[in-house]
Amino acid sequence: MRLIVILCIIFVNNFVISGQSSWTLAKDQDNIKVWTRPCEGSAIKEFKMEAVMDESQESVIATLIDIPNITEWYMYVSEVHVDSIIGNSRAKYLIVFDLPWPVRDRYVDTDATIEMQDGVAKVTITAYDAGRSGYKGNVKVSVMRAAYEIKAINEKQTLITHYGHMEPAGLLPAWLANSGVSDGPLESFIAFRERIPHYRDTKIPNFK
Question: Total domain count for the chain?
């Protein structure tokens, strides 16, 4: 059975917190837009990304939930190890981020779910502390949240929105972490769009 869910956390509405700063457009390239804003209680910014894919909703979802192949499109993700699959809508897995030298690599244990609400697929991923205490000497990330919304515009176009925030842990300076907040998601979405055609004939499970 195809694995369910993907990278990055926490329900979409949790990113819309009253009192926070409004989004600032950081990137507008290849029909993909990325916004950033300060994250309450953190020195690291959060991001929101949006793009219209000229593909069916089912193909977009099928690409997104293929966990082992996240490494093929999400920037800096070098390893993904699935720990458990619960039904059609939940998975727990390890993600390893291969960061540029001299920054030490990061890893995170995630608990991810997917559900369909009024025809919109919603993916949420949360980091959890009950996972590994160490992995190949890498720095453990304990705070990460991401969400995806996948909504069909018509049979051949799909709107996908991605929200995310991560505390990189360790001694990584905030200014350095913030420098990639918009670039990483943009490059990831460009690569993601190129992979979707491989999933045009893939049937997705019932997430209800």
Answer: 1
Whether residue 204 is contained in a domain is answered as no
State the Cα–Cα distance between residues 23 and 20, nearest whole angstrom: 9
140 assigned to some structural domain: yes
Instruction: Residue 110: give the domain boundaries.
Output: 12-196
Structure tokens at 96: 């390893």
pLDDT per position as a tens digit, 118-150: 999 999 999 987 888 899 999 998 888 999 999
CATH code where residue 52 lies: 3.30.530.20
Strand partners, 28: 33
**Residue 77 is assigned to a structural domain of this protein:** yes
pLDDT higher than 50, residue 77 = yes
Buried b (16+ CB within 10 A) or exposed e, 88-122: bbbbbbbbbbebeeebebbbbbbbbbbebeeeebb
